[in-house]
Structure formats: C-alpha cells, structure tokens
Design brief:
single chain; mainly alpha; 33 helices; 2 strands; flat; Cilia- and flagella-associated protein 54; CFAP54
Length: 803
C-alpha cells in the first residue's frame, strides 16, 4: 500500500522508456504503542459502529492497559491472523469456479463476523488502523474485492456513503473526508483508505477486463485517475503530505501505462501531465533523489504526444523538462562547489532521456524540405556512405553532437525508429511520401549497425553482449550495447524490411541467445526464430534492402538450431514449404515453452492470423469423398492443410484464447469439429463404411500414412474420444464468444440484442428497412456453434448408451 510518513521514500529505479513503476515500500505491520495509548480516550466513548448485544459487553479498556497483553486486543489479533493464514493456505487449492466461490464466501463471512464482533468494543483509532492493515494484507494476497468491501470501504463509510467523487470539487472533498483538517491524526489513515479503495477498484477492472476491451472499463479507469488527482490536489499545499503526492504519481503512471498500451494515450496524457507538474510543485520532491522518477514521468508525457501524432508538442515538452532539470542542477551547484558522483549519474540519466525525446523528432525535422527555398538538396548515396568512416551522414553527426557514448546513441536510434502505432508484422517502409524522411530512416539503420559493430563485435567477428541493461551502460558511459537493445533493433529492421541487415544480425543474435539460460533470453530467442521463419513468406521477392549485411555473413547461412517437434510428419509427407515450417516453429515455441519464456503476444497473435488466412484458402481446395469412409480417413491423415488446421487450433488453446479474435476461433473450431464429427460418427456421414468395432481408433482400422512417424493426433483417437474432443472445442469457442459479448457490450445493450430490422419513415419514396445491429455475423457464428455442439452431444450420448 502507500508509503506513509515523511518524504524519505526510497527513490525508485526506473528505465528510460516503457518501464514498470516502482512499488512503494509497505507500511509497518505492527500497531504502535502510541496509537494504543492515544486511543484510550476514544475507547471510553466509542462510535456506534454496529448495534446488537455486543454493545452490552465490556470495552477493551475494561481489561486493562491497551497493549499487546490486553485479552480483547489479543483475541481480535489472533482471529484475524488465523483467517489470513487460512486464506494463504487454502487459496491455491481452490481451482474450480465452485471452489473459488465457496472460498471467497467463507472468507468474506468470517471477516464480516470478526468486525461485527469486535468493532463496538475496540478503540476507534485501533479499529481503524486494523481495518487498513488487514486491507493491505488482503491486497498482497490479491483479494482486492474483499479488501475493498470489508476494509477500505468500511473505513470510508464513517464519512459518507453517497458521496460522488466524480462530481465533487476540492472544497467538498475536504469537507467530507477531512472535517478536522490535515493536522488531525486520522488524516493519514483517511488518505491511506482512499488510495487503497482506488487501487482495489483498478485491480478489479483489470481482473474482469484485462485488455480494457469494454468502453466502461476505460471509463472506470479514467474515474479512478480523477480520484487520484483529487486526492493529490488536496494534499499538494501541505508539504508534510509529500508522500501522498509521490505515491499518487506512481499510481497514475501505472494506470496510464496500461491505457497507453491499449491505445488510449490521448486519454492518459492529461493525468501524466498532472503527475509531472505535481512533482515539480512539491518542494520536498524537488530533491535530487526523485529526479529519476521525474524524468520517467516526463518521458511518458512525451511518448503520449508522439503516440497522438503531436511530435511538435512532445519535443517542446522535452525541451521544457530539460530546462527544469538544468534549473535543479544550478540550484545544487549553488549549495555545493561540485556534484557528487551519485548526483552526476542522476542528472546524466535524466538529461539523456530528454535528449532522446528531442532527437526523436529533431532528426527528421532538420531534414525536411524548406518550402521557402527552391534549391534542391544533395542526397547522400546510402550504399556509398556505408563504406566511409564514421560519422558519414548528417544523422551520425547529430548523434555525435548530442550523445557522448555508444549506448546513449543506440538508445536514440531505437527511439527515433520506434512507432507505437505499428506492429512488427506490419512490414514496409516508413509511411510517408517524403524522400528525406525515408533517407533519415536508412541513415538511422546504418548508424545502428555501425554502433553494433564498433562496440560488440569481437576479434572473431561474432557479436557478444554484456549482462547489464542498456540504461546501466548509459549511466556508466560505456561504449557497449545490451542484448535486449540489439534484439529490438533487429525487430525494427524486420518491420522496415531491411532484410540483409535482419538476416545477418538475427542469425548471430540467435546463436548468442541459445547459449544463455535466463527466461528473458529464451523469450527473445523465440521471437527472433519466429521472425526468421516467417521472413520468406513476407519477403517473397527476396529483396535485400539498402543496408549491407555484416561482413562475416554468407547468404543462406543458418544459425538456428533445427526444431524437431512434429517436423517429421511434414518431412515424411513432403510438405517442406515455408508455411508449414512456420506452423511447426510456432507450435514448438508456444506449446513446448514454459510460461515465462513465451514469445511476444503481438507476434504470436499476428502469426496465428497469418496462418489461418493461408489455411482457409488451402482448405477450400481440399476435396473429400462424401461416400467412402476409408478414402476420407486417408485424405484426412495425409492432407497438409488439415494438419495445419489442427496445429493452429492447438496453438490457440495453448495460448491465451482471450487475446485472439473470437471470429477466427469460431471458424477454426467449426472446421475442425466437422472433421471430428465425421470421424466419430461414420455410419451417419458415409454410405460405404466397414462394419468394424468402433472401439478401435481410426488409425488402428486404416493405419496412418506410409513412412509417417508422427500422424495427425486426432486420427489416433477412438470415435467417442473424437466426438468428445469436438464437444469440448465447441464449448470453449462458445465461452469465448460469450466472454467477448460481455466485454464489448455497450451500456444500452445494443451490441448483444437480437438482429432485427427497423423501419425508417422519413424517406419520400417509401419506407426503408435498415438493420439495427452490425454484429449479426458473430451472432450467426454463435448460433452455428451451439447447433453443432447440440448435434454432437446427441450423437455422443447415443454411442455411449449403445456401448
């Protein structure tokens, strides 16, 4: 929970861009002796928090001093601790929905009974502090709903039940929650409860809609941000409440980063601006130790501007932030003759972050045509420039002027090339007709390649990387580049279709990553392996790009270790085409990898979509006999497109299905369930069917393809297993559509009502019928899935009863 006290909160350690915010230190868990002593007076006339026979029982003060030896306080502490211990032990054991529901019901009832039992007899200050402590413990266990309703909500109910923060101003907010002012001892607890309520609300939104697909989820996030802003607005004039401001900026940054990732940078911008200005306005937070966090907020604001295609404002804000950082430096130099080494590192990190944000736009704007002059500019020949010594172009000269190390120059190159509005598989040159901008992009890739060669190429001509992160290398002025930065650069080369650079560097990077053991390296390795596998399918014309490959690269050289999983089937059937190699590679990277080493979601989702588009076209060319079951089975067991269909289905269900388009999932499920139904119920589907025992699997009856080591797994199953598999696949697809409809439902219900036609009478020539709902295609798919599941369920029941 929020870090309370004075502004001695430890300075967070953050990375320059797109970083997770630091977690503030939790409050102490013990009950202070002063709290117990100070609450003695309040215990003599406790607030009437509940009514009942407990009011007639002795108060805590009756049993003696209000310390740890007081039997009533000890009994309350014991019951709460037993409940928390029970929750820690049993939470992992509740796996099914029924078990989870029963677990939460039992915990909520137990906690409610504890508060009801002890609330009237405890000192008010002790009771309120205990509410917050238990709420913090529940948040650590991710029991946010229970913490909200039974802890933070209980505390805030003492002030006002019907107060609407979204419609209140600062004065109303202070009147309701801080009637005694900010000097009162309960003010810190009230801030704690307000922050805890907002955190729980945000986590509940994420639990119910992790990708913020519903408009209501986004609206709820914005309301939570407004609440944090109101809390900070109240606390800002009070210097001793600087910890409220600091924690508030962390919470705002966390929620805004989520919104930015989901494409809502325009909505997040005003709150990030507010957080930045608050850090500047709070005198205690102007300390050098908070400069790193201020720079991270500044960077996030600039990134929002760039995401909104307002680069001019992003550069202007970066220049303003740079001036603020320099002001702080001048103030510190006035107080001491020279800066300490730690302070220099803080200033260096913050300054480079802002310089990168300025370079992101400046490198392009400095090269655009000036419309007031007609004199043509002389363009640099990119291929000739690559043979010249550094610095060779205007871009490299600008990098030399602004940055003093290889690491910082490479970060500037990455940020200038990055575009949050493009996905990696959306390949192609930069989206502009301006030749000068395209030249700058080529010069940036040329500079990035040269920086890699100068810093990370060893004597043997092979790339090698340190274990440190790029930010650490920047702060230490190292002329080295981290492996994560190099991987990002190669992904950008793939996106901008610099194929020679991509192929030569990706091979060496994969070779290096395969020698590492940490999950991050394995994840990066799989990302590059997948991009290498899909490159022949995108670069059909075998273009090379403008940037030369690395000197030691030979065309066609392969660094990637062979992926053997299911490749035997593809080879034995003669299907060695690139599309099937990609499917096999993706299957191996997703289905055979641990959870912490999965490839990037963006790459996996786009590749599944790519494979399905190819598979859909291939399936249209598959001709299957509707009369002879033996020919049908032989066709199913040897056809490459049906094997590809099965692979795509397995990848989807190994991955998170909620991240994938429900229409695609429904179409794949219908195709595969139709095949499984034909295999599991041959008497109904085929005229020629051998009267053999259905208890044997299809592969036992007809055998697999000759010479095949690994046949299609669904062929090996028995008919009942095939039907049951089809039933389960349809059930998952139906659940996926139900979830999607729930997440995308509009407040007026227009996105889930039945498809119908409404008559519009304002046309002169006559009435016109117009469809009301645009999602009739999804509804038709939904109905088709339910119909297929019902049909298969009837067949499966008949077969099970017959056997």
């Amino acid at each position: 929970m929020a870090a309370q006290g004075t502004c001695s909160v430890s300075s967070p350690n953050v990375s320059p861009t797109s970083v997770s915010p630091p977690t503030p230190p939790p409050p102490s868990t013990g009950i202070s002796k002063s709290t117990l002593v100070d609450s003695k007076a309040s215990s003599l006339s406790p607030q009437s928090r509940s009514a009942g026979h407990e009011d007639l029982l002795p108060l805590a003060v009756f049993y003696g001093p209000l310390d740890a030896k007081n039997p009533l306080l000890a009994s309350c502490e014991k019951e709460i601790q037993e409940l928390l211990d029970f929750m820690k032990r049993k939470k992992a054991l509740a796996t099914t929905e029924e078990q989870k529901y029963e677990f939460h019901r039992l915990c909520a009832t137990s906690l409610f009974n504890i508060w009801t039992k002890y609330a009237p007899r405890l000192p008010a200050a002790y009771y309120n502090e205990k509410l917050l402590k238990v709420g913090d413990s529940l948040c650590e266990m991710k029991e946010y709903k229970l913490a909200l309703l039974q802890c933070y909500g209980r505390y805030l109910q003492e002030f006002s039940i019907s107060f609407d923060e979204n419609k209140a101003d600062v004065n109303q907010f202070k009147t309701v929650f801080f009637p005694k002012g900010f000097g009162d001892k309960t003010a810190a607890h009230t801030f704690h409860a307000l922050n805890g309520k907002n955190i729980c609300n945000y986590q509940l939104v994420c639990d119910s809609d992790v990708n913020l697909q519903n408009k209501e989820s986004v609206t709820h996030c914005l309301q939570i941000l407004s609440s944090f802003r109101l809390i900070m607005q109240v606390a800002l004039p009070q210097e001793h409440l600087c910890w409220i401001i600091f924690n508030g900026t962390i919470y705002i940054y966390t929620i805004c980063r989520k919104l930015m990732i989901r494409g809502h940078s325009s909505k997040a911008l005003e709150y990030l601006l507010w957080a930045s200005i608050c850090m500047e306005s709070s005198v205690p937070l102007l300390s050098i130790r908070y400069l790193t966090w201020r720079a991270t907020l500044y960077t996030a604001v600039c990134q929002c501007y760039y995401d909104c295609q307002a680069g001019v404002h992003g550069e202007a804000f970066a220049r303003r932030a740079l001036a603020k950082i320099d002001e702080l430096r001048q103030l510190e130099l006035m107080s001491s003759s020279q800066l300490q080494e730690e302070s220099r590192e803080y200033y260096r990190e913050a300054t480079i972050k802002m310089a990168v944000m300025i370079f992101k736009r400046g490198v392009f704007e400095s090269r655009r045509k000036n419309k007031s002059f007609f004199r043509p500019k002389i363009r640099v020949n990119i291929k000739e420039a690559q043979t010249m010594p550094w610095p060779r172009t205007a871009t490299e000269k600008l990098l030399e002027e602004l940055f003093d190390s290889t690491a910082s120059r490479f970060l500037a190159v990455l940020e200038a090339l990055s575009d949050s509005n493009r996905r990696i598989l959306q390949t192609g040159p930069v989206f502009t007709d301006e030749v000068e901008v395209r030249d700058v992009v080529s010069e940036l890739f040329m500079a990035g390649k040269e920086l890699l060669i100068m810093s990370n190429i060893g004597a043997d001509g092979i790339l090698d990387f340190p274990k440190a992160h790029l930010l650490e290398l920047i702060i230490k002025k190292k002329n080295l580049i981290s492996v994560n930065a190099a991987v990002k650069f190669i992904k950008l080369a793939f996106m901008y279709e610099e194929w020679s650079l991509f192929e030569s560097a990706a091979g060496q990077l994969i070779d290096f990553l395969q020698r590492q053991d940490d999950p991050a390296s394995k994840k990066a390795e799989k990302n590059l392996i997948l991009l290498v596998a899909i490159e022949p399918l995108i670069n059909v014309k075998r273009n090379k790009g403008l940037i030369f490959p690395f000197d030691n690269y030979k065309e066609g050289q392969v660094y990637v270790k062979k992926i053997a999983v299911h490749d035997t089937y593809v080879k034995s059937c003669g299907y060695s085409e690139d599309i099937f190699h990609l499917a096999t590679t993706l299957y191996s990277c997703v289905c055979d990898s641990p959870q912490n080493a999965q490839p990037d979601k963006e790459i996996v989702v786009d590749m599944i979509m790519f494979l399905w588009q190819k598979c859909k076209l291939g399936m249209q060319r598959v001709t299957v006999s509707k009369n002879d079951y033996s020919k049908f089975t032989q066709k199913i067991s040897t056809n490459k497109w049906i094997y590809l269909l099965w692979q795509i289905n397995e990848i989807i269900h190994c991955y998170k299905m909620e991240d994938i388009d429900v229409v695609m999932v429904a179409e794949i499920t219908l195709r595969l369930s139709e095949i499984l139904e034909s295999l599991g119920n041959p008497r109904r589907k085929f005229k020629k069917f051998l009267d053999v025992s259905l208890k044997r699997g299809t592969s036992e009856i007809f055998g697999g393809p000759k010479g095949s080591i690994d046949i299609l797994p669904i062929i090996k199953k028995k008919p009942e297993e095939q039907l049951f598999m089809a039933y389960e696949l349809l059930d998952k697809a139906i659940d996926g559509i139900n979830l999607n409809c729930m997440l995308t439902a509009l407040p007026n219900g227009s996105s889930v009502i039945d498809h119908c036609y409404a008559t519009h009478n304002h046309y002169i020539d006559g009435d016109m019928c117009k469809p009301v709902t645009p999602n009739n295609f999804i509804m038709d798919l939904h109905l088709e899935l339910i119909q297929a599941q019902h049909r298969i369920a009837v067949v499966l029941l008949d077969q099970l009863q017959g056997s």
